[in-house]
């Protein structure tokens, strides 16, 4: 009893000492720290025994009152309480880069002496309080990187001294037409919000403006001509809005401009020649608009230019010779335009070029011989033009070069000898008129991964040096006149995944050593004169999944039973050979999608798994008179057609079938034709119906689709970053620099192509939570669907725990946060989504980590969509990954 009393007294004493010795600002800070969760390092330092808080960490005083509060990047969480308004003499508050959540308290408006307020990069929500109108002295306001919403309040225009206003990366809506009475703004950044309406004319009166950052909003209307009044403007970013109309010529008066970024809008008209007056311009981004007409040549005379991105417009014009004199030019991307004329022959001579992409224009003449003079060129893409002449030797001797694409031009002559090509990993020279031999020096380009020289006039044998390209994954030399027994040379290319040599003159049989190419997923050798037997070693290429094409090669003998190991194979073409024997070896090929066995000498019954191909036209069994359909296993669907007869001895049903056919033959041929026509029409109608529902979708997504396909080189294995339950995931870096994780759905096209799935995708696309991977887009091709997710730098939790070498250190706090974040994400899916989404396959591979190690759940909701038919099946089957299923699951 006495002890308790004593405790009470002590507590009372503490309270008294606390209240009477610490200044009111100090008390306010301690009160603030109730809701604001400070790290130990700070909370242990903020001692209630001090008389003022002036020596506390993060605090600075003027005249014993708190003037600066700087807790930036201390790992502070919790929320900001109303007590902050009790510190009347605060001039600067910096709480940036923490994890503070909750609302911005209106009481902050009581700190009327504030000049600087930085709350950026936290998790604050709600709006900007109206009380901010009292902050008449505020000159710097940073609220970027939060979850603030609502419209920007009119009260902002009462802050007459506001110079720097940064509110990017929030969820602000509404427009910004409110008037700044005396506009002293220097920087105005509101990128990545949902601001709509027009860009206000009054901005032209803010003559001190140096930065306008309006990237990624919903601004519409025209770009106001008044922006031309801004003589100090150095950065103007209006990218990714819905702006229309022309680029105002007045922009040419903004003589300080260094960055003019108007890309990804709906701008029309011509590029004004006045832009050539922007003598400090470094970055000119006009890509993805509807700009037309001639691009003013004088703009190419701006000496400071570094980065010119004009792609995806309808711009025409010539490149003037002065382009060759630019001393700073690094990136020029003009693809998908109508530029004509020759590329100035001196291009690259004075410039430190890094990336050149002129694909899909009308350029003629030769490739500039000195394009790599700066020794920094990494990407040279000039495909789909009308370039002629030979490939300059500098292209094959550019030490920095990584990627070369010159496909679809009219290039002639021989491929130059390769010298300095240590970084080169991709050369596409397809569809030209290149002749001569494949240079043996190609063997020096040791990083080479993809070689597409198909559709040229190359001749001669494949040099043995090609066997040195051990990193080669794709080799496409099809449609040339190459000859010899090349395959033995290529057997050392252990990483090869796609080998295409069809339509050449290779001879000498398929060597047994081909089994060494055990990474092959595609093998195209059709249309050669290989001869010999089909060796059983082909059957050990167990990864073959895309295609095996050995057609038209004079192959003889039986199909070896080992071919039955290729259970993942989707396309098999053995047509036009002299192969014989039965098809029994193929009875395990359950993934076949395309089959051609026509014009061989196969005989015996067609295995059950291949019966489905009877309906294909032309029949894959054509020209094998010995093949037949067997009805032995009592399959009611067994029937013959005009290619395949029933196997003898005839079953009862077979006789009936024959009689039926005879009746039909004897009966009206017209009726038969009519029936066929009906079936044909019905098929067509239902098909068009599906297509119609999707054409809009196809059109909208097609340009991005093409870009995804291009950037992954048509889903080349080297871009694979993972495999999930429903498909393979690739990393796609689009030309705009956006990076996506692209999931290619393996589900069959018919399953994907249904409108209700698209609706579901749209729903999923709108789900936003910090711990869920954002679904960015959904693209459809006839054969597959693609889901685009935001890319996660650190990979999956599985990678971090088990995969990467050396394993990164995972502190317990990070592990805890991963667990907590994952739980938050799941709780959101279960409780806040309507209808609730059950993931059904939570495991480390489905928990992805961003660069800050924040967990994001992936693959949610997809299971439901893919397995849509029939809905009842959803709840019955056991789903998930063994080892990660919920305990006590009811195994029915
Ligand atoms: C708080 O930290 C300051 C230095 O930043 C130090 O001078 C002061 O003594 C500390 N106070 C306490 C109570 O630890
Ligand atoms: C605020 O504190 C951080 C340390 O967290 C320090 O780096 C920064 O310089 C401080 N800023 C001011 C204005 O004192
Ligand atoms: C706030 O402090 C951080 C240091 O963590 C600094 O980078 C930032 O510039 C400061 N904000 C302002 C407006 O000075
Ligand atoms: C915020 O919290 C996350 C975990 O949720 C952590 O990884 C991060 O380091 C924290 N940020 C700061 C600035 O303390
Ligand atoms: C906030 O985060 C952005 C993007 O991560 C970064 O560029 C910026 O410097 C950060 N600002 C502060 C004050 O930490
Ligand atoms: C502080 O601000 C709140 C809300 O803005 C207001 O109601 C209150 O009267 C203010 N207090 C003082 C002391 O000015
Ligand atoms: C802002 O977000 C909060 C939740 O953070 C929500 O309650 C409120 O309705 C939103 N306000 C507006 C104007 O969208
Ligand atoms: C810009 O300022 C001028 C005079 O200072 C004024 O007449 C004009 O109305 C202002 N324009 C806008 C759009 O506010
Ligand atoms: C290449 O094309 C240009 C312009 O079309 C033509 O003048 C030139 O003669 C051609 N050169 C060669 C080698 O065919």
From TrEMBL:
Protein known as: non-specific serine/threonine protein kinase
Listed EC numbers: 2.7.11.1
GO MF annotations in UniProt: ATP binding; protein serine/threonine kinase activity; receptor serine/threonine kinase binding
GO CC, alphabetical: membrane; plasma membrane
SMART domains in alphabetical order: LRR_TYP, S_TKc
Domain Protein kinase: 715-892
Signal peptide: 1-21
Catalytic activity from the UniProt record: L-threonyl-[protein] + ATP = O-phospho-L-threonyl-[protein] + ADP + H(+); L-seryl-[protein] + ATP = O-phospho-L-seryl-[protein] + ADP + H(+)
Domain of life where this protein originates: Eukaryota
Gene Ontology biological-process entries: response to stress
């Amino acid at each position: 009893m006495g002890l308790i009393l004593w405790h009470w007294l002590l507590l009372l004493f503490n309270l008294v000492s606390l209240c009477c010795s610490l200044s009111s600002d100090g008390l306010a800070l301690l009160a603030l720290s109730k809701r604001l969760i400070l790290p130990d390092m700070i909370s242990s330092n903020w001692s209630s025994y001090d008389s003022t808080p002036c020596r506390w960490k993060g605090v600075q005083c003027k005249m014993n009152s708190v003037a600066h509060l700087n807790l930036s990047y201390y790992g502070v969480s919790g929320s900001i309480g109303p007590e902050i308004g009790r510190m009347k003499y605060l001039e600067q508050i910096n709480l940036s880069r923490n994890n503070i959540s909750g609302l911005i308290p209106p009481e902050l408006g009581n700190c009327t002496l504030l000049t600087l307020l930085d709350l950026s990069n936290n998790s604050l929500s709600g709006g900007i309080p109206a009380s901010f109108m009292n902050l008449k002295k505020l000159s710097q306001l940073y609220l970027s990187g939060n979850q603030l919403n609502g419209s920007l309040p009119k009260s902002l225009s009462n802050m007459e001294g506001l110079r720097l206003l940064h509110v990017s990366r929030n969820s602000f809506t509404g427009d910004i037409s409110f008037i700044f009475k005396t506009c002293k703004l220097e920087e105005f950044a509101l990128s990545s919000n949902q601001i709509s309406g027009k860009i206000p004319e009054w901005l032209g009166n803010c003559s001190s403006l140096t930065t306008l950052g309006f990237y990624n909003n919903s601004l519409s209307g025209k770009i106001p001509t008044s922006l031309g009044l801004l003589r100090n403007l150095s950065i103007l970013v209006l990218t990714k809005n819905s702006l229309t109309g022309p680029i105002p010529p007045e922009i040419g008066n903004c003589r300080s401009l260094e960055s003019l970024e108007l890309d990804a809008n709906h701008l029309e008209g011509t590029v004004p020649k006045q832009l050539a007056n922007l003598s400090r311009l470094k970055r000119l981004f006009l890509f993805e608009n509807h700009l037309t007409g001639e691009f003013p040549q004088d703009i190419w005379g701006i000496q400071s230019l570094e980065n010119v991105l004009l792609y995806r417009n309808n711009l025409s014009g010539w490149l003037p010779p002065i382009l060759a004199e630019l001393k700073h030019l690094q990136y020029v991307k003009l693809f998908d335009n109508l530029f004509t004329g020759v590329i100035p022959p001196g291009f690259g001579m004075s410039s430190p070029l890094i990336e050149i992409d002129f694909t899909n224009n009308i350029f003629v003449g030769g490739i500039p011989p000195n394009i790599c003079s700066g020794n920094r060129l990494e990407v040279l893409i000039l495909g789909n033009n009308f370039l002629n002449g030979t490939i300059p030797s500098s292209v094959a001797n550019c030490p920095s070069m990584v990627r070369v694409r010159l496909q679809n031009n009219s290039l002639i002559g021989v491929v130059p000898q390769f010298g300095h090509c240590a970084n080169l990993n991709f050369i596409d020279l397809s569809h030209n008129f290149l002749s001569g031999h494949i240079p043996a020096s190609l063997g020096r380009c040791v990083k080479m991964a993809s070689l597409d020289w198909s559709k040229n006039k190359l001749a001669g044998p494949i040099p043995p040096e090609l066997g040195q390209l051990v990193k080669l994954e794709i080799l496409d030399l099809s449609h040339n006149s190459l000859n010899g027994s090349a395959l033995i040379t290529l057997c050392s290319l252990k990483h090869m995944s796609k080998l295409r040599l069809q339509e050449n003159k290779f001879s000498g049989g398929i060597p047994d050593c081909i089994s060494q190419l055990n990474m092959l997923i595609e093998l195209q050798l059709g249309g050669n004169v290989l001869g010999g037997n089909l060796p059983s070693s082909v059957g050990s290429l167990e990864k073959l999944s895309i295609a095996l094409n050995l057609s038209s090669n004079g192959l003889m003998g039986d199909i070896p039973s080992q071919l039955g190991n290729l259970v993942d194979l989707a396309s098999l073409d053995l047509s036009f050979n002299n192969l014989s024997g039965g098809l029994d070896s193929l009875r395990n090929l359950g993934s076949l999608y395309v089959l051609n066995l026509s014009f061989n000498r196969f005989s015996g019954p067609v295995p059950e798994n291949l019966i489905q191909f009877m309906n294909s036209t032309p029949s894959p069994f054509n020209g094998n008179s010995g093949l037949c359909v067997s009805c032995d296993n009592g399959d009611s669907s067994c029937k013959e057609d005009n290619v395949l007869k029933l196997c003898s001895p005839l079953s009862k049903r077979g006789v009936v079938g024959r009689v039926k056919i005879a009746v039909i033959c004897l009966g009206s041929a017209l009726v038969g034709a009519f029936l066929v026509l009906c079936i044909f029409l019905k098929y067509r109608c239902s098909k068009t119906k599906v297509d119609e529902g999707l054409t809009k979708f196809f059109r909208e997504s097609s340009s991005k689709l093409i870009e995804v396909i291009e950037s992954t080189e048509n889903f080349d294995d080297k871009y694979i970053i993972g495999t999930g339950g429903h498909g393979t995931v690739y990393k796609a870096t689009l030309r705009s620099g956006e990076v996506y994780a692209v999931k290619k759905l393996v589900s069959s096209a018919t399953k994907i192509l249904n409108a209700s799935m698209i609706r579901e995708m749209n729903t999923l696309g709108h789900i936003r939570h910090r711990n869920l991977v954002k679904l960015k887009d959904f693209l459809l091709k006839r054969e597959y669907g693609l889901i685009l997710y935001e890319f996660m730098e650190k990979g999956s939790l599985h990678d971090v725990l088990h995969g990467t070498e050396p394993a990164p250190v995972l502190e317990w706090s990070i592990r805890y946060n991963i667990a907590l974040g994952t739980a938050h994400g799941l709780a959101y899916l279960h409780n806040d989504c309507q209808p609730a989404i059950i993931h059904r396959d939570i495991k480390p591979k489905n928990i992805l980590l961003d660069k800050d190690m924040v967990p994001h759940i992936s693959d949610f909701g997809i299971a439901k969509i893919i397995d849509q038919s029939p809905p009842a099946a959803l709840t019955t089957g056991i789903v998930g990954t063994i080892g990660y299923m919920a305990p006590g699951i009811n195994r029915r």
